[in-house]
Fold this protein.
Amino acid sequence: MHAFTIKDLENLSGIKAHTIRIWEQRYSFLNPSRTDTNIRYYSNDELKTVLNIALLNKYGFKISHIDRMSTIEIKEKILSLSQMEAQQERIINEMIHCMVDMNMESFEKLLDENVSLRGIEKTITQLIFPFMERIGILWLTNHINPAQEHLVTNIIRQKLIVGIDGIHTLLNSKSLILLFLPEGEHHELGLLFVYYLMKRRGVKVIYLGSNVPVKDMDYVAKLKKPDAIFTHLTSVANHFSFEKFLNNVQAKVPEIPLVISGQITQAYKKKAPQNTQFKKTLSEVMDYIGMID
């Protein structure tokens, strides 16, 4: 990853593009390059700078004061932030720094430290999901190298699988849920987390994984007769039609409830088909899982 747009900086830092432009005019910490058509673009180091400054500014430091700090002073002030939310944001920023630098050893060490400290579930909800949300826009705009995406997501995937394998619970649900991702959807971290949460509650799960044709899902569903089918859509292929997918599943297994979570549900404005539920937030997903018998 060599260049970011001002919109990328806005999405990753939470600072509006208009404010970033004002910072450039008034202070010395940002000096973007420009394309032949005069469009700003920012380096890896400038992204890190904006993330650090945004964090300090959010927790009480004036921009004019930050502008006079050295790089070492900025790092020391960030480490001194005591608020729990500030510490979480600092760790998420560090995860972004590691991804940008392709420093996977530090990325994995950061995850391991927090899994040991917080446990896998809190690490996922407090750190990994916010991290994925912030960098997700880069996947959609192709401002992240696919190699970086694979390296980061594979490390997180390994931690999730270890977490799933390590679950031992006395809970024993009567329900059987089939989990799958349709053709064109390869991002399975969200679905693996759903698997983790369901297994913790003792729910029986059939996990088909990613990029599964509806006809294959249908074959398993008719054979195993699950109480519900669950899918989590993050970033499907360009040719994927959500409406066609909904109609296809409805035609194949109309008698089995379909539950869908993920970003795509937030953009879909039409009414969900019969026997289909949208879970648009993580809290809605967790509430649904908590109510499974």
